[in-house]
Amino acid sequence: MPVLSANLGFPRMGANRELKRQVEAYWSGKVDVSALLKTAHELRKNHWILQKNVLGLDIVPSNDFSFYDHVLDNAFTVGAIPKRYRDVFIKANDDLLPSALEGDLLSTYFAMARGFQQLSSEGSELPVIDLEAMEMKKWFDTNYHYIVPEFDSTQQFKLTSNKFLEEYKQAKSLGIETRPVLIGPVSFLLLGKASPNSPAGFEPIQLLDRLLPVYEEIIKHLAEAGACSIQLDEPCLVLDLDPKMAQSYNVAYSCLSVAAKKSSAEPIKIHLTTYFGDITPNLSFVLPHLPIDSLHIDLVREPQQFETILSAAAKHPTIQLSIGIINGRNIWKSDLCAAFDKVKKAVEVLGADRVIIAPSCSLLHTPHSLDAETELNPEIKDWLSFSVEKIKEIVLLTKAANNGIDCIKDELEANQRSIQARRTSPKTHNPAVQERLGSITHDMMHRRSTFDKRWEKQQEVFKLPRFPTTTIGSFPQTSEVRKARAAFKRGDISQEKYNEFINEEIKKCIQLQEKNDLDVLVHGEFERTDMVEFFGEHLEGYTFTKNGWVQSYGSRCVKPPIIFGDVYRPKPITVEVAKYTQSLTKKPVKGMLTVTMLQWSFVRDDQHNKLTTQQLALAIRDEVSDLEAAGINVIQIDEPALREGLPLRHSKWQEYLNWAVDCFLLASCSVADTKQIHTHMCYSDFYDIIDAIIRMDADVITIENSRSNLKFLRGDSFTYPNEIGPGIYDIHSPRIPLHEEMEHRLEEMLKRLKRNSVWVNPDCGLKTRKWNEVDLALKNMTDVAKKFRSKSC
Length: 793
Hints:
It contains 26 helices and 23 strands. It is of the alpha/beta class and about 800 residues long. It has a domain at about 430-790: TIM Barrel (Alpha-Beta Barrel), CATH 3.20.20. The strands form seven sheets. An eight-stranded parallel sheet has the order 1-14-13-12-11-10-8-2. A hairpin with a 6-residue loop joins β5 (about 135-140) and β6. The relative contact order is 0.09. One of its GO terms (biological process) is methionine biosynthetic process.
């Protein structure tokens, strides 16, 4: 049997974001469920045909498609639907296995992801149904967000959706054999959380024995449909795991192996997949104990694990090794010569029939194809590889492994020319930027005074009330805003007309904030397509795609800029907009900046991330200084990705946190004591890096805390020395937060925080919301702040 080529997952949205548009049309009532399902059906078909018939992959995934999130899909499949959603939506015969996510089940699914609110038809202010969304969290160290499964000690699992089966059958009807993908049972439980009513000491992994029969049933259904293999993703194997977890993996895969063998005459093969890190510290969990048929490892993020795992695999002649040698998370063209060296070594040790060539992880994290990038600089475009191109690289390497490297001689020579051209291009290096890096001193990373002294001076300047109110930055990006931006980019309207339009939107935004009596205002960010893309467009060293969209969460897509060279700021970026906005009001207006551009860009891979981040920090430092000189007294420097960039192994945390926090300080510490520095973070576990967050020394931090149900404040000894605004309501849901729930959250905050240090604000920016939702939500929020101000100390 020859070396095989495989993919672990394909981008879901479509080449032109067809799924995004149809899902959002369904949410708004513009299309019905049949239209949504038809779009999904066509996208899956097109993606399978592209991978198998056009590009020539041997192993194509199925069940990697999702309407919102694959972890939510997995929860839905095994019946991990919290009772509050089930009670509202699922009223039909609960014993029936649905044919797909449709009807009441689809409503339940989206309510879990986004929340649901049904207002009374009789005009009452209280809704008839009011369901908050489930917690959302970053998927390991990526900018993809997943819905956190929720379990309690009485949890019972049951096969609730056969999406995995229907999608396998759909591909099979096209003549395409696929490998269905699910989250492995152990990682699924480890990625979840205990529900609030769970008894002390309960951990979701204790539910493994109850969960496994559902996985056995899944294997049985797939085997009966003719499936040859199943991909079970166990990314938690790259984390620091308690040695006791080895028993959980052993129990799980021994059980599933038995199910696979008795499911049909030809046992279904189990492909265990890891990614994002090194599994060698947990290798004993897998080899030699687990009865699996193949193992996937990520050799892009952790190439040093190759020799150890190759040696271990050689001792187990029935196991195939899938080597992830094409980067599934970044967009640079692979060095095919270097990659082929690993392929050749694997074949020498294991034999061709035991080697599979694959991307490092699912291609969910990269754009669809370079075909639409007609406006990219040709030199830079030649350095890039998106999902389609990555599959072509995998197929080329597989062809060379099976037929000899000479059969791809022309493609290999072209690849090496591209690699060398990028390495030597003057576009990638700027001597002035390198020289400035050498001028960074320790003193540049400290404010002039300690926070207590700054606080006294800032109180005299701002005279803010207790529980000051603010928002995180962005306001609704309506269709009118997007149309005006598109018209300007096409040249249909002039810069002057576009500026007039943006200024009117800013004026409307200020008026709404003043009407609702917020204390520190924002301009709304209407001129910004995306917080990272906007700044990248004004910095040298960046380039931008036309259609390089990547899913962030649900229907939300981002178009990460590409850092290809040394970064610097040629001229001020936000100063004029900030000055104009401040002229509209007597209240303080925040200058809005972001430092998180490393994690939310496709970053260069030819130097350490620390150096790139230092360059970004110096660019932001220049902007901060210009805002200060222009009379802007409050400056927010967002850093939501600080936790996201944290290495997955604890042993590497401190090195990263040292330089990451230093870069924030480098960006923010040039201002006078009377200037108030804000920062914002969201959708990660921050409590375990609280010391690093404190060292950032921002005067005010706003942080997501509502969607995760106050998790950030749950630590027994939680303290925060400066001012803090834990989010008081979830902005990713269309529901309007009620007074009572915000009052409850604020009361809980005050059990752990000093009364005169708490700000009142939403979880995150309001970009994805509608104006009427924002108006009502902010009114409720400021009403709550005023109520607490009136209470005695």
